[in-house]
Sequence to fold (119 residues):
Amino acid sequence: MLEEVVKVITKKIISSDYPHLKTPSVVFARIDSVKICGTFEADDLTIADKTKEQTFAAKITANVFEYSLVVIDRFGNVNNNFPVLPGIKSKKPFQAGAVVAIAFAYGDIEPVIIGEVSL
Fold:
């Protein structure tokens, strides 16, 4: 009897105060679309030439990408519990159709792309 009451109260608290605990914090997603949405610069780099043992300062300018993601399960099937996730930005380049791991840090609704995975 007491055990059932504790279960009911625990479920109620999780539903009302911690709804993000009901879904996994890391899931897989398929990249549905990709577009370049800007650039970023990495300053204060030092490049070493191993053949001449010289170093020199450098700066790199690279693209920022915007992705549309479709959440999938561990077998590659679309997970209809999640909507399509548009406008997810990353400095990492991925091809459309690639499978990535995404995290919902601290229960946020906007995911962060961790990296590419293979199923």
Observations:
- Residues 34 and 67 are 5 Å apart (CA to CA).
- The mean pLDDT is 91.
